[in-house]
Amino acid sequence: MRKVLLSWSSGKDSAWTLHLLRQQPDIQVAALLTTFNSAADRVAMHAVRRALVEAQAERTGLPLWAAELPWPCSNLEYEERMRAVCQRATTEGITAISFGDLFLHDIRDYRIRLLQGSGLEPLFPVWQMPTEQLGREMIAAGVKAKITCVDPSKLARSFAGRDYDLRLLEDLPPEIDPCGENGEFHTFACDAPVFSRPIAVRVGEVVERDGFVFADVLPE
C-alpha cells in the first residue's frame, strides 16, 4: 500500500484524480495539498476562498495540507515552500505526490525535477487522457463545477461563473481545450463522486485583475 499526497487545486481535475486514485487498491491517499495565496486567503490562481477548499476536504474525509505562499511569490520561494512539504510528507511515510496534469509536458517535467532527490515519486493518473472524452465522462459521473477564472486573451469573460456542464462544452470555441488545460479557465468542484455531499455555492462579483477575469464563488 503506497501512501500518496494529492496536489489539490480545488478544481474538477483534482476531484477526478482523487476518484481514480481511490479505485487503485494499492494506493492510500493520505492528504490533500493546496497552495494558498496568503495575502488573499485564496487558492493560488483559481482564487477560490480557503473556506470552500476546507469544505471540499471535509467532504473527502481527508486532511488538508496548506502550503502558504506570499504575494508576490518568486519561483525560489515557491520551491522552498514545496521542499518543506516534501520533508513533511516523507516524515509521515508518504512515498508519492499525485498531480492532475493532462498533457503540458513542461509542467510535468518541472514537477519531476522538483521532486528529484526528495524520496517522493510523482504520479500523473489522468496524463494524456483525451480531454473532450474526459470532460464528458466527469460530467456524466456527477462532477459539478463553477468556472472561477478565465484568461480573457483566450476565452470570453462571459464564461466566468458558468457551470462546467455539457452546454458549456458545446459553447466553447473549437480552439479551447474542453478541460481548460492550456490555462483558458480554472474551476471549483462543488460536487464529485469523492464528496460525501455537495457544496452549495453561488457566484458573486466578477472582476478583472492581473490580466484575468475572476468569478467569486461564495458558500450559500
Structure description:
The protein is an alpha/beta fold and 220 residues long. The protein is built from six helices and ten strands, in the order E-H-E-E-H-E-H-E-H-E-H-E-H-E-E-E. The radius of gyration is 17 Å and the shape is globular.
Give the key terms.
single chain; 220 residues; 6-stranded mixed sheet; 4-stranded antiparallel sheet
Range of helix content: 25-40%
What spatial form do the alpha-carbon principal axes imply?
globular
Distance between the termini: 38 Å
Mean pLDDT equals 95
Taking all Cα atoms into account, the compactness measure Rg is 17 Å
- Helix-strand string: EHEEHEHEHEHEHEEE
What's the assembly state of these chains?
Answer: single chain
Strand proportion:
25-35%
The tally of helices reads 6
**Beta strands, count:** 10
The description of the largest β-sheet is: 6 strands, mixed
Q: TL;DR?
A:
With 220 residues, the chain is an alpha/beta fold. The chain contains six helices and ten strands.
Write the layout of secondary structure elements.
Elements: E1 2-7, H1 12-21, E2 27-37, E3 42-43, H2 50-60, E4 64-69, H3 75-91, E5 96-98, H4 105-115, E6 121-123, H5 131-140, E7 144-150, H6 166-171, E8 185-191, E9 201-209, E10 212-219
Parallel strand pairs: 1-2, 1-5, 2-4, 5-6
Antiparallel strand pairs: 2-3, 7-8, 7-10, 9-10
